[in-house]
Every structure is written in C-alpha cells, then in structure tokens.
Design brief:
Arc Repressor Mutant, subunit A, 31% strand, 3 domains, 32 strands, Neuraminidase, alpha+beta
Length: 470
Amino acid sequence: MSTETNSPPALSERELQVLRLVATGATNNQIARDLQISVNTVKVHLNNIFSKLGVQSRTEAALFAVRHGWVELRQPAAVSVVDTLAPGAAPPLADLPAGVAQSSGPAASIRVNSAPAVVVARRPTRFRYALIGALVVAVLLGLFAYPLASSTETWRSYLGPRTVSPPAPNPPPRWALKTALPVAREAMAVAVVDGVIYAVGGAGEQGALDDLSVYDPGKDTWAAGARKPTAALGIGAAVLGGRIYVPGGCDAQNHPSNVLEVYDPARGRWDPRVSLPRAICRYALSTVEGRLYLFGGWDGNETLADVLVFDPARGEWSTLPPLPSPRADAAAAVINDRIYVVGGRMGEKVLNEVLAFEPSRVAQSSSPWSTKSPLLHARAQLGLAPLAGNLYALGGGWSIALAENERYDSQADHWSPIESSPEPVERAGGAAALDTKVYLLGGWHGRALASVQEYTALYRFFVPSLPGQQ
C-alpha cells in the first residue's frame, strides 16, 4: 500500500519556484524574468524537475504539482495603482500594495517586490483630473456606441463581467555586449572619473600589464591612456580628488609590490606616492571621506587580515582594527560611508561572508566591524559595484562560471539573484557602475577575456507635466 506525501521529493526551493510558475502557464522567458535568472538556468531547472518527478512535459509537471498540493492556482491579481500625491505628501503604508515602497520628493522612487527602483516624475493634480475626465467621457461614448455596433449582444451581457488582458510588453534585455577591451585581461583595476571608465593593468597573455585603457560609454569607444609605470595584476583602484589611486599589486612572477601610483586624468600622467608599509596584492580597496582603505590581501607568503588607511593630505599610511579573519581576493564598495567587504578566499576556501566597516566608529574606540547577510554563493575575485543603495556582485565563481549574479539591498540587508552575463565570467572581471548601468569588464573563463558587458540595473520612466505645471 503506497502513501502520498505533500513534500516534493528532492526538489530545491528554486526548483519549486520554477514549478509554481510553470503551473501558471509562464514561458521560460517569463520565468527567467520573474526569478531574475537566465533562460538557460530555467531550462536546467526544468530538466531536473522532469527527472525528479518522472514526467516528460511541462503539462505533466504542472498537473503532478497541482495533484499533490504543491502549488495552488489562483486568478491573476488585479493591477494596483498608487495614486499621485501632492508634493511633500506621503501615502499611509497601509494604502500601498504589498511589496511597494514609495519615497517622497520631486521624483518619487518606487520599488516593487525588491526589483530595481523605477524613477517616475509626479503627475500634477490638474493633469490627473483631466485624465480622469477623459476616461469618463471615453467610457460613456463606448456605452452608447456599443449597442449600435452590435445588435446581437444585449446590454446585460455588455455590462456583465469581462476580462481584458492586453499582453504586457517584454522588457528590454538587461545585458548588452559593448565594444571589447583593446587587450584581453583579468585581475585589473577599474575606476570611474567624470563619466569615463578606466581599466588599469591586470594580467594578459604576456603576463602583468602596464596598459591603461579608457572607455567612453556614451560613444562606446576605447582610447589609450598613459601607461602605468609599474606593470601589475591583482590590483584595485579608487578615486580621490579626481585622481585614480592604485596601490601594490603582483608582477608576472606573482611577487607583490609596495608601490603607490596615482593617475591624474586631467594631466594624463602617473605620479608616485608614499609606498605601502608592506608589499601586497589581491586586496580589497575603497574610499570614504577623502581617505583610501585597503583590506586584507596577500604578501607573497600569507593571507592578511590587515586594514590600512592612506591619508593623502598628510601623505602617510596607518593601521586600523584588522578584519575578523584573513582573506584575499575580496571586493569592497561603499554605501552611505559604510564599506562593505564581500567574499574572498582563505587558502582554498572561497567565502560567502559580507562584512561592513564603519570608519566613524574607529574614533569612538568601538569595533568598526559588523556582519551582514551572506552572499547566496561563495565568491572570490568578484566584480563589485555600488548603485542606488544596492551592491552588484558579478562573477567570482573561482573555478566555475556561476549561473547567477547577485544584488544586495543595503536597507533590507538582503541578497537576491540576478541574471548571469551573456558571456560567462568565472572570476577576476572588473566592475563599475555609471548612471543606471553596471559594467563587467574582461575577466577569466578558461582564458583572459576582452568582453565588455553592460547591465541595465535601473529603468527610468518620465511622465511629462502640463504647461505651467511644476
């Protein structure tokens, strides 16, 4: 005698999510968009589901799930409309649909179900009334015109329940391939100054590079900059006062350096600064309030937990409270004067840890470190870019190209998956954020890559105001 269970045999949580969407009739593209994963990843999950459930088609899988009570089919939810408010006003939270948050200001930001922010200009009250009036007139005209156009349908049937579901337009693809790097490379430094992206050094086919390549996203073109005095890989870059600071790095023989070299885009030249206290590479690097912060790294013998800070005004390095544990190949980025140190490696162990460092707490003689929600996947040599209160973690699978990238919501302290890039990147790609987009440059996938991949993190929609309205 067999017994049935309501627990899916060996289905992962992500497979259950895919199965529930399959049961609603969603296509692979719709599932990929809803779960923010690639279509190829959806196909892999479907193959696993079919195999585990012993079915041959989406229909069989859906019926199997419904029969066992794993999914519940419901009517689609009605579209909720958040009304426009007068400037400075804010709606009661109870009036907003679930998963929707709205901020006040001349251009309100609306976040739906943890999706990236959509910036919408406020519609003036007069425009709203005019729009409502136009809709009323259109409805009345339709009511009177319809019987004349169709004598076979009664008023009762016309006024009865009707469901009109216009097809939702497919959103534009978030990833796009742009003009490739002039030289394929990995483990480079990337910085943004005045809307231009700078790719510094890294490792190419001939070893450590001294190349400086300059990318203009508006024109999608590359230009050559002044070569770095010291070829280096395993480096980071940070911007202070419009200048690009690149400390340390390893040479082609993997020997670390203690140099600090600074590039001035306005003059197109490199200048040396005060050397690091020790030779180091494969560190994490960021800036807060005019200072340069360097975390962990490798000195040629061991992985470090050191935290170093450089004050350009005083021209000196100093030591701060160390990392909770040593790590190399981590990444760092700033949100609201808090530095997030993400991922990395301790020996052969790839980390999913996320730490936050608050420099302001150092002066208060309290620990500047706190632990945040971990990455969904352990990552080392990842690309990390901050944008609109989020962090975007790209690549870093170390020995494999991960099926998903990740986005971190700093307010919710929550990571969620986003789709992988069109060209897979295992590790060592450079990342930069500019306007509403995140860029993934180069990296490694069996070889050094020259690809430049652009991810649209935010979409902006503007509603024009009527003449005379502000």
